[in-house]
Amino acid sequence: MVLGEFADLDARAVTRRTTARVAQTGEEVAIRTADQLAVHGVLESGTVVSAHYRGGLSRGTNFLWEINGTEGDIQITGPTGHLQVGPIALRGASGENSELAELLLPAAYELPALADARTGPAYAVGHAYAGIREDLDQSTHRIADFTHAHRRRQLFDRIEHAARRN
Predict the structure, then answer these.
(1) How does the average pLDDT of the chain come out, rounded?
(2) Helices (H), strands (E): how many in the chain?
(3) What is the DSSP letter of 91?
(4) Which of 34, 54, 66, 136 could cross-link to 13 by cystine, CB 3.0-4.6 Å?
(5) 106 pLDDT tier (thresholds 50, 70, 90)
(6) Under 8 Å between Cβ of 91 and 75
């Protein structure tokens, strides 16, 4: 969504953990879905993509996204495995800068009414609701809609099909 659509992709879906413990009861249950998903390919723009999603949390960086471009680099990290539900750190460098430095989010992206929830999932939900309201008020299309959901579903189908081939 951010960098464009895949022109070509390949995928692997692997189950590394075969059981999980239910936190409330301590019961061990079987895992029947992949907990590791590797996708790589080329976007319509010619950009090469390599993505790895894993289940669970690690002791290291749980969310890491690097975008390396011809004019600079951006790195997004977060303590949860999901960009949508936790705080993020944004770092970048361009031009003569050889090391990444913290990038501050523009004030327009802040929601003062939700400042107390800045590090939790409610902040992301509030941001989505504010964006939906803006889209409705201004007839824009910044926030994902059903057309977006359909395109993502088609991508997931392609990934699933590629993983089954392998």
Answers:
(1) 90
(2) 2, 9
(3) E
(4) 34
(5) confident
(6) yes
